[in-house]
Amino acid sequence: MPAGPPIGEREREILTAIVETFIATGDPVGSRTLARSNKEGLSPATIRNVMADLADAGFLEQPHTSAGRVPSTEAYRYYVEQLTGKASLSQEDQGMIQDSLHGISDVQEFMERTSHVLSLISHNVGITVAIGGPKNALEHVYFSRLGDQKVLAVLVTRSGLVRDRILRLDLPQGDLDAAARFINENFRGWTMEAMRVELSRRLEQERSEYDRLMSSVEQLYRQGALTADESSQVVFVEGASNLVNGEQDRQRLQQLLQTLEEKQKIVELLGAYLDAKQEAVRVVIGLDEALPSMRNLVLIGAPARVGDDVMGSLAVIGPTRIDYQHTMTAVSYIARLFDKILNESE
Amino acid sequence: MPAGPPIGEREREILTAIVETFIATGDPVGSRTLARSNKEGLSPATIRNVMADLADAGFLEQPHTSAGRVPSTEAYRYYVEQLTGKASLSQEDQGMIQDSLHGISDVQEFMERTSHVLSLISHNVGITVAIGGPKNALEHVYFSRLGDQKVLAVLVTRSGLVRDRILRLDLPQGDLDAAARFINENFRGWTMEAMRVELSRRLEQERSEYDRLMSSVEQLYRQGALTADESSQVVFVEGASNLVNGEQDRQRLQQLLQTLEEKQKIVELLGAYLDAKQEAVRVVIGLDEALPSMRNLVLIGAPARVGDDVMGSLAVIGPTRIDYQHTMTAVSYIARLFDKILNESE
DNA sequence: ATTAGCATTCCTAGCCTGAGAGTGCTAATG
DNA sequence: CATTAGCACTCTCAGGCTAGGAATGCTAAT
Quick one: average pLDDT of A248-263? Predict the structure, then answer.
């Protein structure tokens, strides 16, 4: 951390101005440009001095000697920290969001739309993730014999996600019903993880006095009817095409798109940075520390809550040059809406 | 159609050679290069004459005067037509495919993996689509009360796809069971379309003598429990990042990626070109006729069958410069495997 | 502490040029 | 008569070069 405290009022103002003009134009910003746009009539020379200090402190970088300065990762962090966060969304934006998400009760579809809306409104990549892993709480299971050797297993979680699976198994419907009843009565509200532990304990213990019921349950269990592993996480990534303009280098662009295609990586990324406990929008600058292909990208995300449960997260990924204020407001707005809509349909 | 028949043996050979070297190198091919690689010692001059004829016939194009020739859309079509199709897949490829698809019984997961494999093996975009529309045949429905005002509806189709939905509805489980039994008994094997027609006819007709059963059915019906519209189509598109190298123009690339993100467009595309009746692999050259952003792309696809049922299609989208032989063999191989694996798990 | 002035550094766009590749035509050839 | 050699011509592309412009850092003046 090179973050010494040489940040007086003037430094702060100039740094902010640099970040803002760089976000707006994309070109390195020089002292003269800055002097012109600055209210108080500071001369370029003065500004140069300040800029030199800021550069020493690690907030600014120079592509080359005679170019202007470019904000560093630190600079963005600082900039975001001192944002007021008071802005609100325009009427159109609000309307657009509401229209897109109106009247959907299916959680998956809702998530898909949400990622789409996030992408549209930020002009960047919109992402939604539902916790699908073992942490999820069970609401309901159901098994149905489909034909010879085939059983349909449906598993509904607290958050409203539905996971279905077709198993190769030959049990009469009666046994399936009994097994479902057993599980629903005993394990509603348990996390998948806890259920699996307890279940295998019981199966082990009662192995001697095996009855028909436990045998059905075991078969279903072995076939994965109750599994909710990583692969069953639900992830929607939308708007990757928006990144084409951002990354100049061909190869980098390709790697970046590849990374976004690997849903698993995305899940880990959000998981690592978005703390479920935190309430508000979180901004992560410097994603390349985790994923090298994500150079010059930032994550703006928030947990997705329904009531008190955290059911996943939603986020925007975009270039460091993103409009922070607007995106943060939008993410926060959508996160609240998410809760509101899904809650009332409950 | 400029397709006169000036295609003698020599023309054919030279055209093929041009297409092949262009596919291999990506550079416009000139008469000298061709003369060198050609077995029979034809001089560049002779070849030039032939090339001029081919250009007149619309098979070749010239980026500019002093560049070589580039195959036209027609040329690719012709080239693909006269491919023998005898090639077979390498051992590694076969192994890789088998490993990736081994031991999956869930149709959706299988489709996802398949699109992934298609993308890996072709180094291009892999696509799988399951017919989700009204043409789909019903296998089984199931309703379950989840809590106040919430009902889970699960709908299994012949092809093994599972469609679930959460409805806002307040019916006791008993009524739900009765409704499910009614539908399963009367409509198993019907297409969704036919079922809906018949159902609304009956509801209309028996309106006078409404009983409790029909009332439940109607409520479910109205809430969309039995709907399988376009939005419930299942589409997997994988490997879009592979196109980055193909399209040079920034803006075009972006439009292209955008198009691929619109799943609906993709479904229409496959639907328009892949005839369910046809057995074999189909190659469509000149996709821009349907979707302007798909300039210089081709589609290599086949219907996905399970037994006698067509349950969707699988395809590769790549540049006109794709390795046709290899991709066609791969698609065909995977299509057969698709049938085989899903059939035996039936 | 601030600013004006100035030499210096470095990138960029534009221009030019020469090499190279390919064509099309004409005339020679078997 | 089909094929080929020869040749003039066209066009692109990479490289080198230059002039202009934008910023900087330093020094000295205010």
Answer: 94
